[in-house]
Fold Homeobox-leucine zipper protein.
Amino acid sequence: MTEGEEYCLARMSVDPFMAMKKSNYNKNNQRRFSDEQIKSLEMMFESETKLEPRKKVQLARELGLQPRQVAIWFQNKRARWKSKQLETEFNILKQNYNDLASQFESLKKEKQALVSELHRLNEEVQKTHEEKRLCCGDQAAVVALSSTDHESENEENTRREQEEEVRPEMEVCEKGDDGVLCGHHNDDYDDGGYNNDIKREYFGGFGEEADHLMNIVEPADSCLTSSDDWGGFKSNANLLDQSSSNCPWWDFWS
DNA sequence: AACTTTATTAAGTTTACTTCA
DNA sequence: CGTGAAGTAAACTTAATAAAG
């Protein structure tokens, strides 16, 4: 017999009610309920998590327990059950989050590859225009010598049109402050002007609709460039607090 | 309607034990 | 083998709420 049991028996001999109330022993000197008692309680809990007073008294009588003990067991059981439920839900949420995060990462890589490709094609187009401009510039000089004033005017207009055709790409490439044409860093495409021009490339020719599309794309782009701390995810209670960051990651999906 | 009493619940804590390094 | 930390189950406390008188 343990010290606790001896103590309990001693108290019970003096004041059985007090012993029951203040110790962890029941009236049969059991600290824990028997397997049979637990089994019956579990079965009842499965059918209803809250016990009607009449059923409580009946179950208590069947198990040789006080109704109060049955009530307390149900209280504790509900608490344990709830905490298990929370744990399960948390794990499901965590799994969903991880799946989305990896999906996000692969889409981010795909986007970067596409932007690089666009960048390369842009340079190619610019080169072609440059060659074309040099070639046409020489021809204009020859024609100017033998043409009338009227014809010169027409040629001048054509040249202006050609220059304007080239200019957008030039503007795109001249935005860098390092003086190098198209001198953007591969890992830093969040420059507003550059991105807007890329978007115009994508959505150009649709007028207001293009502007609307660009506005939809905007939050996603800025988000993509500021997600460096994604890898730091820890499975703790702050899981859902990630939503309070400046750039909610789910904006990407909107 | 405003109040007291009683019962019930969730949430948090205490107690006494077991397990394990 | 003794010991202390961690985990667990039963019981308790407290505050909130609702129903009855």
